[in-house]
Amino acid sequence: MRGKTGRSVTIICKQSEILALKKNRLKPKILDAQNITIQSLIGSSDPEDFNIQDSNGKLLFNSALRKYGPLEPDELYGFEPALVLGGYPTLENLRRLKLDQHLLILRSFETPTLPFSSTDLEKSKKDAADLANSARRDVEAMLKKIDEYDADGGCKKAYMKAAKRVLKDNDWFDKKLEDIINLGL
């Protein structure tokens, strides 16, 4: 059997969350191993992965670069007030800050949460399948009785369209859930 590759953990800095499913348990590492892991994460990432959008969907990095100039190696663009404290991702809230101090301050505000660390994937998969099967049964029952629901036939076309959409959405959801489970996140 061929091994699976790909990410097993997702870090969402602006929400102070680390997403790792139960099967991808996070294990403590010594400091040297942590440094290598962080360097690998940053080094193999696309810079656009870290470019945050404002409330209008506009990416902020280039605007910050024009407004504040290029960063020194020990600097970053950070939000004040911090997003984790309810600040908004706007250019006006971005500042040029010292990297170490800003990250230390952010870390003191809130410990990152692991919201899906105890998720039972098999139970989630079964629950999703049960929900999809229930929706399919409801659609089938509705289609069998459609003439009773719509005696004059005025809404029959809309019912049929809605039924097809429900079944299509269920199939799409089932595929996405399977993809997520197979990736581990």
List keywords for this structure.
185 residues, mainly alpha, disordered N terminus, two-stranded antiparallel ribbon, 2 domains, 6 helices, elongated
Tell me the strand order in the biggest sheet. Answer: 1-2
Q: Distance N terminus to C terminus?
A: 21 Å
Number of helices: 6
Shape descriptor reads elongated
Unreliable sequence segments: 1-6
The Cα radius of gyration reads 24 Å
Element pattern in H and E? EEHHEEHHHH
Q: Which secondary-structure class do the elements indicate?
A: mainly alpha
Quick structural overview:
With 185 residues, this protein is mostly helical. It contains six helices and four strands; from the N terminus they run ββααββαααα. It folds into two domains: 10-109, no CATH class; 121-183.
Task: Show the helix and strand layout.
Elements: E1 10-12, E2 17-19, H1 31-43, H2 61-68, E3 75-79, E4 94-98, H3 99-109, H4 121-144, H5 146-149, H6 156-183
Antiparallel strand pairs: 1-2, 3-4
Helix pairs in contact: 4-6
Fold and architecture overview:
With 185 residues, the chain is mainly alpha-helical. The chain has 6 helices and 4 strands. It has helices at 31-43, 61-68, 99-109, 121-144, 146-149, 156-183, and strands spanning 10-12, 17-19, 75-79, 94-98. The strands form 2 sheets. It has a two-stranded antiparallel sheet. α4 runs antiparallel to α6 (156-183). The longest helix is centred in the last third of the chain and has 28 residues, at 156-183. The chain is elongated and about 70 Å long. The model is unreliable at 1-6 (pLDDT under 50).
